[in-house]
Amino acid sequence: MVSIAAEGVGVTLDARDVVRDVTVALAPGTLVGVLGPNGAGKSTLVRALLGLVPHAGRVTIDGEPRDALTRAERARRVAYLPQGQVLHWPLSVRRLVELGRLPHLAPFSRLSDADRRAIDRAMARADVAALAQRDATTLSGGERARVMLARALAVEAGALIVDEPLASLDPAHQIEGMELLRAEADAGALVVAVLHDLTLATRFCDRVLVLADGALATDGAPRHVLTPALLAEVYGITAWFGEGLVVPTGRVR
Ligand SMILES: Nc1ncnc2c1ncn2[C@@H]1O[C@H](COP(=O)(O)OP(=O)(O)OP(=O)(O)O)[C@@H](O)[C@H]1O
Predict the structure, then answer these.
(1) Nearest residue CA, atom 6 of ligand 1?
(2) Range 4-251 has CATH code 3.40.50.1820
(3) Whose CA is nearest to atom 31 of ligand 1?
(4) Whether complex ipTM tops 0.85
(5) What is the value of pTM for the model shown?
(6) Ligand 1 atom at minimum distance from 14 CA
């Protein structure tokens, strides 16, 4: 069980405040969507939580200051799938997913049976077992996205932070991806997912943080906070709401 809390987190890049004074407490067993328009600061916020970008304010993991944990300890507690990763080396898919076990390995040690089982589980859950021997640089965008998700799952961390994990996935794999994140949360993990799809966020997330211009515009259960007024204000769109669907229908003039 892993919890993450941010207090007054702010990020300034090129003299611009791209994340502004964000305070949130993220509990184990929840699937939290991070929403907001392009450039709102979603990726930068999750990178700040992970300590990958210098920031103002405080971040704690399980109540301990994040920076008091070693890099390996952080990596074992919080797995991260960055946005749009590019692969440079011709590794097999299996080898790539194996990299997810690195935080668990002592220097120069080999994978244990437990590591291999974790890799098998992650590959099965992300539906990439059939790709195991493929050169990862030859995968389609959607296949690559699922392999990267498998690598993050292979960590078997208590918290999983995924940045646009559904990008390039076909509709069936998008739903499967969200079901998988939901199952992780139901099994006790804290899952934080940067998302663009309002319907999937509404259907699967317990809570959404909506960012606008770097600041939290709202934070709560999607069905309560994703209102026509909020979508107009934050995204500049109109939307049709019904049966758990939120379908953008036009732009606010
Ligand atoms: N290294 C950087 N230097 C300067 N500005 C940056 C840097 N990285 C990001 N930004 C800017 O910070 C803002 C927030 O970027 P971020 O990637 O966090 O947005 P986002 O909400 O994740 O967007 P998207 O939905 O397009 O992925 C953007 O305006 C971006 O151009």
Answers:
(1) 13
(2) no
(3) 39
(4) yes
(5) 0.95
(6) 4
